[in-house]
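Q: what does this look like with 2'-deoxyguanosine-5'-monophosphate bound?
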Amino acid sequence: MDDCIFCNIVKKEADCDIVYEDPDSMAFTDINKQAPVHILVIPKKHMRSLAEIKDADLPIIGHLFDVVNKVAQQQGISKKGYRLVINCGIESGQSVWHLHIHMLGGRR
Ligand code: DGP
């Protein structure tokens, strides 16, 4: 989608610190870090939110959690632990309407 900032990141039309990429997903540092490690894991395919995924999207959702595991190891937070957040919908405060998993780690 042209007016989606995360789609623009996927197309490499917006600047960001990409830490992982494969044909279906991408992970990059959040522009507004809330923890020493704050990474967003996204599907490359545009999906507005968790509430709007289709049955056909379920394999990519599982894949995203595999990516979380890989990125956690790469970032050295796998053993100590980290928090995952998915904001879903207006009342959650979701501000970017492209599904993303926040990975927060590096401190207790
Ligand atoms: P949420 O509130 O769950 O929709 O979180 C959206 C996150 O996306 C927020 O923590 C800031 C981050 N973000 C927004 N725009 C950009 C951007 O252009 N680049 C990067 N790296 N992160 C962004």
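The chain is about 20% helix and 25% strand. The chain has a mean pLDDT of 97.
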